[in-house]
Each structure stands twice: as C-alpha cells, then as structure tokens.
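QA checklist item 7 of 12: single-chain prediction sanity check.
[x] sequence parsed
[x] length recorded as 165
[x] structure emitted
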Amino acid sequence: MKTKIKSLDQLKTIREKLKGEGKKVVFTNGCFDLLHIGHIRCLERAKELGDLLFVAINSDSSVRTIKGAKRPVIPQEERAEIIASLACVDFVTIFNEPDPYNLIKELRPDVLVKGGDWKPDEIVGSDIVRGYGGSVISIPYLEGYSSSRIIEKIISIYGKDLPPF
C-alpha cells in the first residue's frame, strides 16, 4: 500500500494523466489521527462521487498546530499507510500547511469533499474548485465519532492505570 503514497509532484503528474483520460478526481483531507467509523464512511462516500479518491493527510507538525502539542497520537507515515490501505482510497499525500488550499490549487480536483461538520461554503478551497466548475460536497456528519472522543474514552476508562501490554 505504500505505493499509493505520493508527493505533490507525483500526484500532479497522475492528475494530468487522469484528466486526459476523462477521469473524475475526488479530493478530501484531514488529520486521520485515530481512524474511526466516521472517517471510513466519509471516505467511502467520497469515493462514490468520482473515479479516483485523493486523500491529503496533515503532517505531524500541521496536526500539532491545529490540535495542540499532544497530537497526533499516530505518526504521519503510519497514518498515511493506514489510509492508503483502504480500498476506497487511490492515492495519499502528506502536507505541512495547516490547510490544503495550495494542494487544491495545484491538483484541481473535480470534486472537493469534507465531512458534514463543514458547510460547503466553509470548506477550504471551495472557492478554487467552484471557480473552474467543480463540485464541493459536505458529506453528512456521523455524530459522536472523533479521534478526540476516542482519546477521552481511553482516559476515562483507564486514567493513568493502563492495562499491561
């Protein structure tokens, strides 16, 4: 699955080839720190909106900027490999900025997707995608699922008394 993990330059080359073939590229992004069913359902739904799904993952430094010094729990290379292992994901890239605006500008996806906790007009890059006639979709949010809630649940169950490994 590591073959699905690409640099921006590699993805740009792939994107141009796909465009020439008339393929519809869907793009989404996130931290994907602790994978949960909300992530899976969003990614699966995103894939249904086109031919190929590109997923951009925030780098470790980017996650720390967004979520705080204790995050991410899972390092970026592992998060990328986990996301790449999903059948619905075609390619993965890691980005260092707090948001994927520049990636979206470079890749020019046909469809830009985020989870329903984002309104379409608030999705970073929606102006770019709509500007060239692409679609911006907010997939319904699956209430109660988040990496933060998983962390909170572990702390509430175990506190400092973690089970033996």
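[x] summary fact logged: The chain has seven helices and five strands.
[ ] second reviewer sign-off
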